[in-house]
Amino acid sequence: MASLGVAIVRQYERGVVFRLGKVRNVREPGLRFMIPLVDRMRKVTMRTITMPIQSQQIITRDNVSIGVAAVAYFRRVDAVKSIVEIEDVQVAVGQIAQTTVRNVVGRSLLDQVLTDTESLNESIKDILERITRQWGVYVLLVELKDIELPPPMQRAMARQAEAEREKRAKIIAAEGEALSADRLAEAADVIADHPVALQLRNLQILGEIAVEKNSTIVFPAQFLDSVRAVSQFIEREAREAGLDHPLERGHDAESASRPTAAVR
């Protein structure tokens, strides 16, 4: 129908009319009439185009070979330039995008490629936008979607991550031990000021054990407290009886410090 001077331009298209080989105007969507055999129309889609960038082997700045694939989103904003300024704009955008990805990633370190992909994407987009602006094309987005690492590098990174986890675990355990030591020191100070607290703690532990297992438990009495009490008792008795020989008191104290208590 274009040869008869009638053309239908869809909503997402623009029609560039050439009259005798020269750009006449751009037709909007709808039913459009032209001069038969004189005018020719080229339709240009204005929709966003998704262009995959195939994976390619790239050597980073720290000499690591990786495979990088990406995807680019662009659309034509100037129908005339996209036809007049370049022969095939889609092929041109694909080629320049692939080259730009290789150049930007090749200038970066491996850690930057893996952790700072947002800045790399933005750098690639800015470069493409400066180049494609003269073709009437606007680049919306460029994303690195797949990064392939060589197997030795994957194993090395796995070992590094495992070592980092172990280091954090040891640091946390050491901090826990330090806090535990501080709390135990505080508890020892409290027990030193209040000796009865240790007896109460022992009774509490015995009660907990008795609840879990019904059995007979034999445990030694507080040896030091018993020795101290017996020594005080012997000294008091010695003073009352008038004994001054230290061996007699020592012999009595040693014989008095042997018994143990049994709790059922």
Describe this structure in words.
- Residues 241-264 are annotated as: Disordered.
- The protein is an alpha+beta fold.
- The protein has 8 helices and 10 strands.
- It has helices spanning 79-84, 89-106, 110-115, 117-132, 151-193, 196-212, 223-241, 246-256; strands at residues 6-9, 13-19, 22-27, 30-33, 39-45, 49-59, 65-76, 137-148, 217-218, 262-263.
- The strands form 4 sheets. A 3-stranded antiparallel β-sheet has the order 3-2-5. Strands 6-7-8 form a 3-stranded antiparallel β-sheet.
- Strand 6 (49-59) and strand 7 form a beta hairpin.
- The termini are far apart.
- The model is unreliable at 245-264 (pLDDT under 50).
List the helices and strands and how they pair.
Elements: E1 6-9, E2 13-19, E3 22-27, E4 30-33, E5 39-45, E6 49-59, E7 65-76, H1 79-84, H2 89-106, H3 110-115, H4 117-132, E8 137-148, H5 151-193, H6 196-212, E9 217-218, H7 223-241, H8 246-256, E10 262-263
Helix pairs in contact: 2-4, 7-8
Region (Disordered): 241-264
Biased composition (Basic and acidic residues): 241-255
Domain Band: 4-161
